[in-house]
Amino acid sequence: MTMQLTGIAGSTALVTGAVGGIGSAVASCLAAAGAAVVAADIDGAGAAALAETLRGQGASALGLRLDVTDHAEVERAVDTVERTVGPIGILVNAAGVLGRVAALTEYDDAEWQRVFAVNAHGPFNCMRAVGRRMAERRAGRIVTIGSNSAAIVKTGQGLYGASKAAAHYLTNCLGLELAGQGVRCVVVAPGTTETAMSRANWHVSGRREALLHGEPDRYRVGIPRGRFADPREIASVVAFLASDQAAHLTVTTVTVDGGSSLRP
Ligand SMILES: NC(=O)c1ccc[n+]([C@@H]2O[C@H](COP(=O)([O-])OP(=O)(O)OC[C@H]3O[C@@H](n4cnc5c(N)ncnc54)[C@H](O)[C@@H]3O)[C@@H](O)[C@H]2O)c1
């Protein structure tokens, strides 16, 4: 039996962090399903190039330079998209930064502010601007790319995991508040996925193998599936959650990590 995703074609989808590994896979997947994709990223040239590629494949796409940490810029961008492209039916919060992998006692205030600005304040800015409008229209789907680090404690990821836990809570809280108004909000929590973000640390000797196989001396488990996720394996779950086939899914977190969270 083949199942076609419905409810995406004809929608306007705003994807933040769209130039990144997961964001670009999500943008491509939603475009292939027929959404008009607004590819937003702080890397404006990259966003424009991605939109051009998607248009070349016959999709409707617009590239937008957007810094999700800037509340006023987000409000302006959402207003412009709604006036020029269409009412946003799907928001995917994929912009994120890993920050430095370090012991908690070694971080300085600037690192805290940077990681929280992008990973927690960013989704808040976007969900506040888009959620208000979706609630008025009594329709909308929001998917935040969180992380399995929000639910399992990992050494060296104090700031990242805490900022992602905030994003998980914000998204699910909005989902609860808007559940009666036709707006669904869900978190997708990936484990290590092959993108620029995860590869950034693989130059450290043994790091890649440690992520795969675990580090018992650092209380870290590996990935039971024995490999990292392909960004398209995250994107297909996001597309499903944005579709009508997931119509009863809201206020929840879907973990896509090859089993590494060991959650029942
Ligand atoms: N790769 C992984 O292993 C992994 C695992 C779990 C969760 N995640 C999450 O998935 C999401 C996507 O990560 P990725 O692996 O594709 O990383 P990536 O580094 O490839 O992409 C992140 C994108 O976010 C953009 N960005 C950063 N700051 C921004 C800002 N202020 N405003 C707008 N855009 C901004 C970057 O320009 C980049 O294009 C992130 O939220 C990340 O935390 C990734």
TrEMBL record:
SMART domains xrefs: PKS_KR
Alphabetical list of Gene3D superfamilies matching this protein: NAD(P)-binding Rossmann-like Domain
Residues in the signal sequence: none
Record-annotated Ketoreductase domain positions: 11-182
UniProt keywords, alphabetically: Oxidoreductase
Family as reported in the entry's similarity comment: Belongs to the short-chain dehydrogenases/reductases (SDR) family.
The protein's name: 2,3-dihydro-2,3-dihydroxybenzoate dehydrogenase
Organism field: Streptomyces crystallinus
